[in-house]
Amino acid sequence: MTKNLFSKQQQAQLKLNPYVKTVSAKAITYTDEFKEFFIDEYDKGKYPSEIFLEAGFDIEALGPTRIGRASNRWRTAYNEHGLTGLEDARKHASGRPLERELSLEEKYARLEAKMKLLEAENEFLKKLDQLERQLIRKKSK
Question: Could you give the count of Cα atoms lying within 13 Å of 66 in the half-sphere of its Cβ?
């Protein structure tokens, strides 16, 4: 199975579309707004290719397979998770998990940062407790 690759010209054309987040020779990333628009229009009874065409996409460049897969993926995500299912999950990810073993210095630095965070959290809770006690004393007077 050969994948449909985008030519440089097609990539340049696709990048002009406001519904395109990124595009490479192999893939296209659509905006969350377009996915929502797509679902709204699909629910009104429009065909996927018709929706892409109305949004200014070159149907020939995208191809029926790419349109069909995107349509199925978005409808499934929407049916399972609502609008949040359409959001680009990569914006919430912090990147690849670290697979290599951390050095002793890196482990120490992480533990030190964690300790400082816990100390700050402790101080905050102490202040919160103190304010709560003051509030209770004022109410009892």
Answer: 18
